Amino acid sequence: MVVGVSRPPVLMWAHSRSASTAFLRMMIERGDVAVLHEPFLALTEEGSVTLPSADGGEVTARSEKELLALLAELARVRPVFVKEVLDYEYPHLFAHPEDLAGFTHTFMVRDPEPTISSHYAIKPAVTCEEIGYERLFRLFELAWRATGRRPLVLRTERLVREPARVVETFCAYAGLPFLPESLTWDAGERPEWRRTRRWHLDASGSAGFEDRRNAYPATVANHPLLRAFYDHHLPFYQRLVQYDQGAPMSESPGRLFARAYADDPAHAEVTFDYTITEAHEPTKDRPRLTVRNLLKVVPVEGDAARFWTESPPGEEERRAVRDSGVRREAAFTFGMSEAKVEPIRAWVQIPDGLAADPGALATFLDYRLLVRLATAENLALTTALLGHPEIARLPCDDYVHGILSACDEVEQSGATPHAMIVNPRDYYHRLVGRGGLLAELAEGNGMKVSRNRWVAPGDALVGDISVAARLLDARRSVIRVAEPPPGTFARPGVAVCAEVYEGVAVHLPGLFYLVTLAKQNGAFSPV
């Protein structure tokens, strides 16, 4: 009988020559994880692939869909790690990205210049598609959309320079304990990669993560075909490494804008193909959850997105459903809705004389404009949730009792109340120090608390937020000199605007409750 560990299988997607085999060797050294080496590649080239089964034996997969199902089954009894390369475009994955939803996705990338030279040295007939960065980025977007969680991106250069730090980051993301002793191992060939041994000679000769810099006769600099490969794949590599959260961007948004401003103060503008409030967190040394942190993120194209919904029924509809008395959610009604993706803006004025120092201007923008933008984002997301017409109100006479009642209501619909948004006044005066309430909710529910000013004092939005709603992220941003709307500033001056483009899709409004405390003579009472 198979009993559940139920940790999602961890997939590491990579291009060839990225040092991903050394990472796999480290995972083997752990000894607590079932490790699979390039099963999709083997399936494509051999027509079938054998892997461990959940009952301790072996099982054979003959299709990508079957392989995914067997990996999920194996993960019920032990942690699973899969290292895979994108030398081929695995058709089922790209045609059915929904099948990626039950997995944890990580990506490893290396600077394409030495990578392409290394790949060509082993396989002179390599095609542009086989280099792999374009496929990696497409799969990155598909995995993000399917799971609602941004995949982890690791860079080879950081891995060999700071192995402990990078592996610890990976373990935290994958839900695995960090085992420092696994960072070194005995050199030698492994049966896992014997079938493709010529590709893994460096890994076989290593005893840890090493910064190998081999010289190759054909390079991007001297070979026109390799240069063409490089020019094609570089933009996809650059998009991927923008999401490497373990290392700061080589140039921050503020620094990029400061350079543009020095060149053209009247018309400076910098665009980004990512969301700067997510990629840059100037206050991360003072952790505080925003509404963005509570929501799963879905990349979207265009100015609107259609999505499915399940809504609480009317009384007549509820009575018509046989099981509604034992499963409240059985009576939820299905439908479609649409959410707009709209600009969220923030403004600052450049103080007189600051632009003469580009470094100081960059710091000012990174720490003041981006903070203001994050605040505007928090306001917009909170307002979108609070304003949803189908979210139920739950009046109460006691604040804590109201929150616990909302948690109960969410669970009566088969969900888990894992997050709430409260006003700081209520957090400090009604929740902190109240008999360990917050600790009990965190331990029992994984409760996350976002506190902000736009939930009215005495109110609390409680729900299964990461399941019930999604943040729609257009993955584009801009910082520019612009004319502010009247009333933005008290004094004239050079104004700079930052914009991101986002929306909120509420799939399950019945999994939210807005607790509303009865006011007493309009005055706040902390107890």
Question: What does this 3D model show about the protein?
Answer:
With 527 residues, the protein is α/β, with parallel strands linked by helices. The protein contains 20 helices and 19 strands. It folds into two domains: 232 residues, Rossmann fold (3-Layer(aba) Sandwich); 265 residues, hypothetical protein PF0899 fold. Helix 5 packs across helix 11, helix 7 packs parallel to helix 11 and helix 12 packs across helix 16. It starts with 9 loop residues before the first strand and ends in a 10-residue tail after the last strand. The relative contact order is 0.11.
Write the layout of secondary structure elements.
Layout (H helix, E strand, L loop, with lengths): L9 E5 L5 H11 L3 E4 L1 H8 L2 E4 L5 E4 L2 H11 L5 E6 L5 H5 L8 E6 L2 H11 L5 H4 L1 H15 L4 E4 H6 L1 H12 L26 H4 L19 H18 L11 H11 L5 E4 L3 H4 L11 H4 L1 E4 L4 E8 L3 H6 L12 E8 L1 E8 L8 H29 L5 E5 L2 H13 L7 E4 L1 H8 L5 H9 L2 E4 L7 E5 L1 H4 E13 L13 E12 L5 E6 L10
Parallel strand pairs: 1-5, 1-6, 2-5, 6-7, 9-17, 13-19, 14-15
Antiparallel strand pairs: 3-4, 8-17, 10-11, 12-18, 14-16, 16-19, 17-18
Helix pairs in contact: 5-11, 7-11, 12-16
